[in-house]
Design goal:
Number of domains: 1
Largest sheet: 8 strands, antiparallel, barrel
Number of strands: 12
Oligomer: single chain
Shape: globular
CATH class: Mainly Beta
Strand content: 15-25%
CATH superfamily: Cyclophilin-like
Number of helices: 5
């Protein structure tokens, strides 16, 4: 009887876990909201993002670097209340996160990925707070053949890149830890706001708030 109860309890817990699904976060902006799921396959990045969101870390930070056809980037704590034209992108929570490269998680349009410094960072550790969302672009067949070889893309990933677009050149260089499920129109609106060169900081601040909704 005890064994049967244990099996029953395990089944209930397993069903509850499946029913819950992946963690979902809402990124709120004046241009609208973007909803994203966080991958269980990248637990350190997932848990860190949840922790910072729940602490209100991202509230009123800026998308401080925007490049059309590439991505929108934010999460620098130095961007909160930053003076106009101040260069941003060097701030963080005081720690980095080990890379969590997963072959099945690539930089398709809407990918949520961790920024990092390229200087003295051979392990490609991620920023503790800065992230970007890929707007991306579509590439020609010849270009995709190059990426297929250099990034070891599967046929399914090749087809997804051709249909959706993205940035395959970033695969296994930066950790992808989630993806948009809603708000692609908002991503596109933000990606084309006027910016100052050479910093690519928007002329008018684009603020965010991030909260965990499931």
């Amino acid at each position: 009887m005890t064994r049967l109860f244990s099996i029953f309890l395990f089944t209930i817990l397993l069903f509850s876990a499946c029913e819950k699904g992946p963690t979902t976060v809402l990124i709120e902006t004046e241009y609208g909201n973007m909803k994203a799921i966080l991958y269980d396959e990248t637990p350190q990045h997932r848990d860190n993002f949840i922790k910072l969101a729940n602490e209100g870390f991202y509230d009123d930070l800026l998308f401080h670097r925007i490049i059309p056809g590439f991505m929108i980037q934010g999460g620098d704590p130095d961007s909160k209340g930053a003076a106009p034209n101040r260069p941003l992108g060097g701030g963080g929570p005081g720690y980095t996160i080990p890379a969590e490269f997963v072959d099945s998680k690539v930089h398709l349009r809407g990918a949520l990925a961790a920024a990092r410094t390229g200087q003295n960072n051979p392990e490609k550790r991620s920023s503790g707070s800065q992230f970007y969302i890929v707007q991306g672009q579509k590439f020609q067949d010849q270009q995709m053949q190059f990426f297929q070889q250099s990034k070891n893309l599967s046929p399914e990933q090749m087809q997804a890149y051709k249909e959706k677009g993205g940035r395959p050149d970033l695969d296994r260089e930066y950790t992808v830890f989630g993806e948009l499920i809603e708000g692609f129109d908002v991503l596109d609106k933000i990606a084309v706001v006027p910016t100052n060169k050479p910093t690519n900081r928007p002329v008018q601040d684009v603020k965010m708030k991030v909260r965990v909704v499931r």
